[in-house]
From TrEMBL:
Pfam families: ILEI (PF15711). InterPro entries: FAM3 (IPR039220), ILEI/PANDER_dom (IPR039477), ILEI_FAM3C (IPR039475). This is FAM3C protein. GO terms for cellular component: extracellular region. The lineage of its organism: Eukaryota, Metazoa, Chordata, Craniata, Vertebrata. Residues 99-186 form the ILEI/PANDER domain. The gene is Fam3c. The keyword Oxidoreductase does not apply. It comes from Tyrannus savana. Transmembrane segments: none annotated. One of its GO terms (molecular function) is carbohydrate binding. PANTHER family: UNCHARACTERIZED FAM3. Its main location: secreted. The keyword Zinc does not apply.
Length: 224
């Protein structure tokens, strides 16, 4: 009788062990299957995810060109943003933008930032802006974006100096217009990089201000 009980106990133990091992293997197989399936999905997602280009522009720039993307301010609430070669030069987050015309200077040969400034063209004085424009060195890339109002204090001298950088819209820039521009000191032709939206109460997106203007592109590197 004792031997029979021992046999039964051993049989139950072996059966239990077998069942547990089978369940464990099934769970292991399921987990491994889940891991492999997840890895395959992740790999597929990576392969279909569109590539990111510098400054978030829509396509890569050719060799010997600098990528840029910029936007004007939104009414008098959100400041402009200027990015060159994946380097955000001016933005509200950097806290270096202000009412008026915001300017970023970049070395035309290397793409290195040279400095940023903003000039209040509503309550400020145009004289410092004129002196700044005159001081820009040949071969410098000049990026400009308006915020709130960039035109009230502009005079003919300031507009002429900006036109010499390649702008065609600066002569028509008016009160609370939105404008972005990329040109250069010593440029021989008019710049193709310029966007301008007039302040018009019938078409404005915001009360008293037009919609934001955005622009992106590839700036040719200055050659020797």
């Amino acid at each position: 009788t004792g031997a029979a009980k021992l046999v039964v106990v051993i049989a139950i133990f072996l059966l239990t062990f077998y069942v547990i091992s089978q369940v464990f293997e099934i769970k292991m197989d399921a987990n491994l299957g889940h891991i492999f399936a997840r890895s395959a999905l992740d790999a597929a997602a990576r392969s279909t995810k569109p590539p990111r280009y510098k400054c978030g522009i829509s396509k890569a720039c050719p060799e010997k060109h600098f990528a840029f993307k910029m936007s004007s301010g939104a009414a008098n609430v959100v400041g402009p943003k200027i990015c060159v070669e994946d380097n955000v030069l001016m933005s509200g987050v950097k806290n270096n933008v202000g009412r008026g015309i915001n300017v970023a200077l970049v070395n035309g040969k290397t793409g290195e930032p040279l400095g940023t400034k903003f000039f209040d063209m509503w309550g400020g004085d145009v004289a410092p802006f004129i002196e700044f424009l005159k001081s820009i060195q040949d071969g410098t890339i000049v990026l400009m974006a308006t915020y709130d109002d960039g035109a009230t204090k502009l005079n003919e001298e300031a507009r002429k100096l900006i036109a010499e950088l390649g702008s065609t819209s600066i002569t028509n820039l008016g009160f609370r217009d939105n404008w972005v521009f990329c040109g250069g000191k010593g440029i021989k032709t008019k710049s193709p990089f310029e966007q301008h939206i007039k302040n018009n109460k019938d078409t404005n997106k915001y009360e008293g201000w037009p919609e934001v203007v955005e622009m992106e592109g590839c700036i040719p590197q200055k050659q020797e």
